[in-house]
Amino acid sequence: MDSALIIIDMQQEMQARIDAGRPHVNGEAPAKVAALAAAFRAAGQGVIHVRHAEADPASPLHPDAPGYPPMPCAIPGAGKAIFVKRSSSAFATTDLADHLRAIGSPKLHVVGAVAGFCVNSTVRAAVDLGFHVDVVADAVLGFDLPGQDAQTIFDVTMALLAADFARITDSAEAIATVHG
N or C: which end of the chain has fewer CB within 10 A? Predict the structure, then answer.
């Protein structure tokens, strides 16, 4: 394998936010993630699932909470790699980097949630660790923050990542690339 799709935090809590009407960008991201995962699997490339777990039982991302399980687009096949993180970056509290090196995946395609948080910190850490990264922007969810709209946060995050960390692409290009 020379590339891997990294699916970050596509958990039921993200769907709950969308269903509750929280302002967001890329509401079609779950469908894009599913299409990308299917394409990567068909091409024999890695599909890595990352989930966020909080220790606080009141958190919607506690392993026993309804927000913790994966969304349908991010259900791994039997025996597939799942990394559970307790930090923003998918690398800080997991052995993801060792796994990626072991399967020979220096090129990463990052998708998932949330643009300004876990996607951002994972991409920056990946680059620091020597991986080449494409962010598949139309397969990344972004949400608003108090006083900041979702689109602005998303656009600024993608611009910062593009300036020094990653190549920004879309799902059609990523699928075409993985099929070579």
Answer: C
